[in-house]
Amino acid sequence: MKAVIFDMDGVIHRGEQVMHGAVECVETLKKSGVKVGFLTNNAVRTREEIVARLAGFGIGAEISQTMNSGEATARHLIARGMDGSRVYAIGGDGLSVTLTRAGFDVDRDDEGEKCDFVIIGWDRNFTFPKIVRAQHEILVNNAELIATNRDPMFPAQGRLLPGAGAMVAAVETASGKIAELIGKPKTISLDYMLDDLGIEKNTSKREIIVVGDRLDTDIACGVAYGATTVLVTTGITSREMAENAPAEMKPDYIIDSLMELPGLF
To answer: 82-181: CATH homologous superfamily?
Structure first.
């Protein structure tokens, strides 16, 4: 195997608690010469903040070993020749910082000048006025609607909370437009992750290992890419659910702990 790409929440950690075996697993892979990356749909934190978060769990990583849907969104729009565009961003500070650094003119106010894009990530302070502004930009100003991710929910503090997908759905309903998706299960962010790790384009896709806890995002992304996929049951998916998953999101391997991962290959 050339590279192992880990999802974060539910795989490396749950909330502020590192998963059993995560540190040892990552260190074992690094010592064996395997490139390791951390790919998350969460756009709330910048890549620097992800590195700091990993360090807090006892896992060392460089910025180039991390990728999130906010960074992937910025790169995707730049690749389309849209750098410098004005965007209305619904999301946390990390999303706005990422887009601003990439050269976009970011607006987060409930009222403002015409925007070219409405970009949605998870927003703890999601409100009705934000839906109104997004609706206006899309219907009146012909702004494109972009979803960093569609995760419907995520576990936190012993319960499930609405994810960015709930916010995307609200704006889609209000505008009648379907958002372009950037994060997993699309392979856009995975492609950028592998580029940053220096994985050569002619590398066999089966030598890329995608590890996650969600069938509809992590595993579906890996399957779509052609990678080898590993579902770890420490997140929201049980072994039974994984075994009965449809082909487009069925993992190659199912493990109960990251301690098992190095021994698979």
So the answer is: HAD superfamily/HAD-like (3.40.50.1000)
What does the pLDDT profile of the chain (265 residues) look like in tens digits? Answer: 999 999 999 999 988 899 999 999 999 999 999 999 999 999 999 999 999 999 999 999 999 999 999 999 999 999 999 999 999 999 999 999 999 999 999 999 888 889 999 999 999 999 999 999 999 999 999 999 999 999 998 877 778 899 999 999 999 999 999 999 999 999 999 999 999 999 999 999 999 999 999 999 999 999 999 999 999 999 999 999 999 999 999 999 999 999 999 999 8
End-to-end CA distance of the chain: 7
Report the DSSP beta bridge partners of residue 211: 6, 230
Q: What share of the chain is helix, strand, coil (3-state, %, to 5)?
A: 40, 20, 40
Domain boundaries, the chain: 3-41+185-264, 82-181
| Domain spanning 3-41+185-264: CATH 3.40.50.1000 | yes
Cβ contact 167:122 at 8 Å: yes
Distance of alpha carbon 91 from alpha carbon 70, whole angstroms:
10
φ, ψ (nearest 5 deg) of residue 77: -70, -35
Structure tokens at 107: 């607006």
Contacts of 48 (CB under 8 A, 6+ apart): 63
In angstroms, the CA 226 to CA 175 distance is 34
Omega before 185 within 30 of 0, i.e. cis: yes
